[in-house]
Amino acid sequence: MTPEIRAAVKSIQQDRASGSRQLALAALDALRTIAGNHSGAELRDICRQLALARPMNAAIENAIAGAWSRYLDTGDCPLAVQEMVEEIEAAPEEIALAARKTIPSGTLMTHGYSSTAIELLTRLAPRKAIVTEARPSNEGLRIARELARGGISVTLITEAQMALMAHEADAVVVGADTVLPEGDLINRIGTRLLALAARDTDVPFYAVAGTLKVAAPSEPLPFAPHEGSPEEISAEKWLEVRNVYYDVTPARLVTSYVTERGVLDPSEVLQFSNEAERRWQALMNSNEL
């Protein structure tokens, strides 16, 4: 592993502030820095290292696998990376076009930091946003500031208030870390609780995500409980503390996925999982050059 790639992998692994799309772009940027200096098997090994930098994050895996697939077609790695970057950067506008036809513009509720969801909410300009605190990192305060800068009225609540406040929303809008082939959603811990509260109050629950976040069936660790430092919650040495970062919201609780390919029923994401599988196999289980 080159020093540049080693540093990039470490940075991606330690980054808890960026969303999945931003991490995917960071991985592509790292690949871009060495793209002109490596080719063939050496480049493939570098792509594999970057793709595996953050298991359970389909966006990174698919971005790098997609760049590798394009490189196999063209033999031009810088061009392949640039095309993937342009595709990722164009997605928010396409997602917004799809969302405007589906998501109401009254009061929207959100949970967990997602650059895609924040960009969408800013574009939709709802009358009001209800934002959960998202402890222990207090992501909600960061979200509230960004939405307020966009001129949106914001109410910040604790997660304990989600069930109480869900009925005040016209819809729930969250991002996605990864979408599993069967349509289940991996996202910030607490997302499933919010989805249950939304279902109980007949409030639609939308997940906004580029199809890049749909995992291939054979991608590693599609879900495993990932835990952060217990000290983020409590430094008491006598106390066992669990600090799980993500949970899985079953497809039955997701009204729709709003993507750059349109509004999808959870059952429809399988087609994008199959596309991801072909790219993943070409990168990880093939010697084709």
Summarize the structure.
This protein is 45% helix and 13% strand. It is built from 10 helices and 10 strands.
Can you characterise this structure?
This protein has about 290 residues and is α/β, with parallel strands linked by helices. The protein has ten helices and ten strands. A hairpin with a 5-residue loop joins strand 5 (about 180) and strand 6 (about 185-190). Helix 2 (about 20-35) packs parallel to helix 4 (about 60-75), helix 4 crosses helix 5 (about 75-100) and helix 4 crosses helix 10 (about 270-285). The longest helix is centred in the first third of the chain and has 24 residues, at about 75-100. The radius of gyration is 19 Å and the shape is globular. It starts with a helix and ends in a 5-residue tail after the last helix. The model has no long low-confidence stretch (mean pLDDT about 90).
Strand-pairing-aware structural class: alpha/beta
Largest sheet: 7 strands, mixed
Distance linking N and C termini:
19 Å
Count the DSSP helices.
10
The percent range for strand residues is 5-15%
Q: Which overall shape is indicated by the principal axes computed on the Cα atoms?
A: globular
Number of extended strands:
10
Query: Helical proportion?
Result: 40-55%
Mean pLDDT score: 92
Q: How are the strands of the biggest sheet laid out side by side? A: 3-2-1-4-7-9-10
Order of helices and strands: HHHHHEHEHEHEEEHEEEEH
Radius of gyration: 19 Å
* Low-pLDDT segments, ≥5 res: none
